[in-house]
Amino acid sequence: ELNIEKFKSIQAIDLTRVSIDRNTIQTKSAYFAEIEGFFKQIQQSKREMNIRFSILTSATGNDKAYQTGYYSIGSRRSNSESFQPMGYGYFTVVLMKKEGKWKISVDADKQAVIDEAEFRKSDLIYELD
């Protein structure tokens, strides 16, 4: 939906955002500003966006979850039927359950040099349009 407020709502108050390729840990406000700019860029180009997650590993506890995997961000023009991948990345997240809701506490990622076949090797793929 390219909704920055919805995006912010799934992040923990004490979010740690790591950009592995840049060797940086971003502040929450800088990360949100970067994402909001990306969302606006997609909207201004009159495109839609999706994100897919290919889960490689998971570990869960009562109020914590850890996952690694690949993600793919795709875009399409409003008159197109399918999303075209813009690239792939490798992610690591830690989620915490607070007040009955899961929030992303640690979000780390880096670019991944893979293809669609490698992305689809996982038995667990989520797609969000």
Q: Regions with pLDDT < 50 over 5+ consecutive residues?
A: none
Based on CA atoms alone, the radius of gyration comes out at 15 Å
Number of helices: 3
Strand portion: over 45%
Pairing-aware structural class of the strands and helices?
alpha+beta
What's the end-to-end separation, in Å? 8 Å
Order of helices and strands: HEEHEEEEHE
**Total beta strand runs:** 7
Strand order of the largest sheet: 2-1-6-5-4-3-7
Query: What general outline do the C-alpha atoms trace?
Result: globular
Q: What oligomeric arrangement do these chains adopt?
A: single chain
Main β-sheet, in a few words?
7 strands, mixed
Range of helix content: 10-25%
Determine the mean pLDDT: 93
Task: List descriptors.
single chain, 129 residues, alpha+beta, seven-stranded mixed β-sheet, 3 helices, 7 strands, 21% helix, globular
